[in-house]
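User: Please predict the structure of the protein below. I'd like the answer in structure-token form so I can feed it into my own downstream comparison script.

Assistant: Understood. Taking the following sequence of 213 residues as input:
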Amino acid sequence: MEVDKFLTYILEKYFVFHPLAELDESNTIDDIEILKREIDTKKVKRTDASMIELSKKVFEKFRCYNIGILNETCNILGGTDAENAYILYKRYKSSSKKVEKEEECCNSSKIRIDMNVNTKDTFYVGSLDTISTEDLKRVFGEYMCTGNENDDYRYEYKFVYDNLYNFSLYDYKNDQGNFYDEKDIYWHIASNTDKKQVYKSFKNELINKIIDT
């Protein structure tokens, strides 16, 4: 409810005291229900004028001070400060939504491990020279043994990226025609797309996911 959010903002933004309370930080009001017992909020509308009027009632009914300025001689906030308080609240709300969207964007991973996806049509696009087998197992669990006896690869992780592209992480024989020990595997990347930006994005997100986990 918008009214409750605004009242919560006021309690977080300002020192708010009951008129009879001593002027001490320990006596500040931290529960909007105390405000609502003194002020009828049931008929408050979600209009600027109505919310400013609500702010005015809070400032007139209770003793409110800017945080950091608390003494008997400082200017107490009054009805004339109501409009400014609501403007600050709207700015705060707008900036909070922006941060939430940015966080949602950053936190929404496009990588999805899917060991059932068909990677037969993928081809070599790059390598993971900074990620170990231990790193991959820690984040994605055990690899699959998809290679046959005569294949040049043995193990594989399968991914879908951005719900469009298939990616495979696989081991491969070294220059001497031998497989690496598990802890020394040099993992290669295959995909069904040759779009460099898609490969770059996949690799960067994969590395960041491993680092952050």
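That's the full token string. The chain has a mean pLDDT of 87.
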